[in-house]
Amino acid sequence: MKVLVVNGSEVRTLLPMDECIDVMSDALAALARSEAMVPLRQIMWLPEKVGALGMMPGYISGIDAVGLKVITVFPGNHGTRYDSHQGAVLLFEATHGQLLAIMDATTITAIRTAAVSGVATRLLAREDAESLAILGSGVQAGTHLAAMLHSRPIQKVRVWSRDAAHAQRFAERESKRHGIAINVMTTVQDAVKECGIICTTTSAREPILRGEWITPGTHINAVGSSVPFTRELDSTAVKIARLFVDRRESALNEAGDFLLARKEGIIEDSHIVGEIGEIMIGEIDGRRTSDEITLFKSLGLGIEDLAAANHIYRKAIQSNDGTAVELGGERDED
């Protein structure tokens, strides 16, 4: 039985940001309608927590597909030739369990994570939000810039990074790519001042964004931390915002930005307004006023990888992309 192998370059071609935002919107709405299954991710930490192996399964009934992302996370790779997230997404059909495809997880993760932030931004940011602050200058900073440009009429972009030289290279590269000026800021406070949208995409273990710096009416996509013991936002930033998540169960178990604020007694579980998919199906309200601060805490879900892989697979079959390999899966006839 043949299995399609899709590499990173092919993923980028087959999963443009605008299409991925729509695919993520459908997947999160399906989750809100109870048409998807998303077990909590399993993480095996290596000694001293230098890296981890993560396993993220998912199932969506509407596309009759089941899948699994297996990925390593090595934060120490920042500044090296290696991405911090590496692995594969496995796509199976849900009738006979046939393995259909193996795809590069690094690129899928980079695109779909930002696309989910794009969904949240379309639902929660002010319609007239034209200024963007990106905290961090790595892979997710680049894809989040693309997603925000697809989601709101961005005219002004600022970037901050702990590595000023890296931020400068990011600004020069992405300015040329998107035809928009990007200003490098020396402090987080200056970067986020009076910005309509803030994306935190760092590997910070301690807060870099403080509530006292956030302007009323701002929308925040908090992306960098996906484990219970690290965070990018301080407790005040979480408290003053209406908090939305990709999945409530995941946030209650994995979201350090939320859990550490709760541990300090600043907020309770009820501070989570709901899931962004619930906004799409009309179960909860999104932004209510122009002055309120909204926060989307992103963790990443297996169904996001699954939906992206299914979209890629369908397009690859039509365009004859990818490489088919014989892997087995059928019983030999006697």
- Please name the CATH architecture of the largest domain: 3-Layer(aba) Sandwich
CATH class identity of the largest domain:
Alpha Beta
- How would you sum up the global shape? globular
Mean of all residue-level pLDDT scores:
95
Low-confidence stretches: none
Write up this protein.
The model has no long low-confidence stretch (mean pLDDT 95). The chain has two domains: 133 residues, ornithine cyclodeaminase, domain 1, CATH 3.30.1780; 173 residues, NAD(P)-binding Rossmann-like Domain (Rossmann fold), CATH 3.40.50. It has 334 residues and is of the alpha/beta class. Helix 2 crosses helix 3 and helix 3 packs parallel to helix 4.
Summary, kept brief:
The protein is an alpha/beta fold and 334 residues long.
SSE map:
Blueprint: E1 2-6, H1 8-14, H2 17-32, E2 36-37, E3 42-45, E4 52-60, E5 65-73, E6 85-93, E7 99-104, H3 105-124, E8 131-135, H4 139-151, E9 156-160, H5 164-178, E10 182-184, H6 188-192, E11 197-200, E12 219-222, H7 235-239, E13 241-245, H8 248-254, H9 256-263, E14 272-275, H10 276-280, E15 293-297, H11 302-319, E16 323-326
Parallel strand pairs: 1-7, 8-9, 8-11, 9-10, 11-12, 12-15, 13-14, 13-15
Antiparallel strand pairs: 1-16, 2-4, 3-4, 4-5, 5-6, 6-7
Helix pairs in contact: 1-3, 2-3, 2-11, 3-4, 3-11
Keywords:
8-stranded parallel beta sheet; alpha/beta; ornithine cyclodeaminase, domain 1; 11 helices; 8-stranded mixed beta sheet; globular; 334 residues; 2 domains; Rossmann fold
